[in-house]
Amino acid sequence: GGAKPLAGRTAVVTSGPTHEPIDPVRYIANRSSGRQGHAIAAALARLGADVTLVSGPVTIPDPKGVKVIHVEQAAEMLDAVLARLPADIAVMVAAVADWRVATLNTEKIKKQPGEGPPPLMLTENPDILKTVGHSDKRPTVVVGFAAETQDVESNGRVKLQKKGADLIVANDVSPETGIMGGTRNSVKLITAEGIEAWPDLSKEDVADRLAGWIATRLT
Ligand code: C5P
């Protein structure tokens, strides 16, 4: 029940890590449970939005009321997101790997006795948030996350500009916070207008409040 302020609106949300293959059995990845992104997708749907969640590999179940597209690599995530535009809302929560292996090994790299470890040449992945934020089909509300271990506020401000976002949700992911992989989150909202610190909340409560913030911003 409840009000549906996002009825008739479309949203695309990214969540989880990406896996960038090194060879058929190995990959490079960031840490991400997908909990926060999945909760945001569900919260937007509860407010009436037509939500597509583009998820990297996670172990948590697909959220209810949401169309889920499962991807593995950043390039696939970007394609899936761009295919959903135009949309009213984009919330990019995924912990996208910054780099992938430049030339894919189609066979498993074998240990070579006496030769030491193989060198890995990396190349930069596309920045999905930045691409969406500067797209000619840019959604009305573009939200990004910033997982920082220091200078949360100043790094968030720089990110807001660089990525073309309306809002950066910044959090301190220092190991002692327990946020990575945990169920709670303590965030700061950084916009062109300033900074707002939210109290320590469950990831579900952060998601509900964020969906409300987005609905207010859109109307
Ligand atoms: O630059 P940084 O990785 O700290 O930025 C984090 C924000 O940018 C998050 O919203 C993340 O989902 C997004 N991002 C992205 N594609 C990348 C890297 C980050 O969408 N390749």
Automatic annotation (TrEMBL):
Reactions catalysed, as given in the entry: N-[(R)-4-phosphopantothenoyl]-L-cysteine + H(+) = (R)-4'-phosphopantetheine + CO2; (R)-4'-phosphopantothenate + L-cysteine + CTP = N-[(R)-4-phosphopantothenoyl]-L-cysteine + CMP + diphosphate + H(+)
Molecular-function GO terms, alphabetical: phosphopantothenate--cysteine ligase activity; phosphopantothenoylcysteine decarboxylase activity
Coiled-coil boundaries: none
Names of required cofactors: Mg(2+); FMN
Pathway in which this enzyme or protein is active: Cofactor biosynthesis; coenzyme A biosynthesis; CoA from (R)-pantothenate: step 2/5; Cofactor biosynthesis; coenzyme A biosynthesis; CoA from (R)-pantothenate: step 3/5
Cofactor note: Binds 1 FMN per subunit.
Similarity comment text for this entry: In the C-terminal section; belongs to the PPC synthetase family. In the N-terminal section; belongs to the HFCD (homo-oligomeric flavin containing Cys decarboxylase) superfamily.
Listed name of the protein: Coenzyme A biosynthesis bifunctional protein CoaBC
Species per Swiss-Prot/TrEMBL record: Shinella curvata
Gene: coaBC
Residues of the full protein shown: 183 to 401 of 401
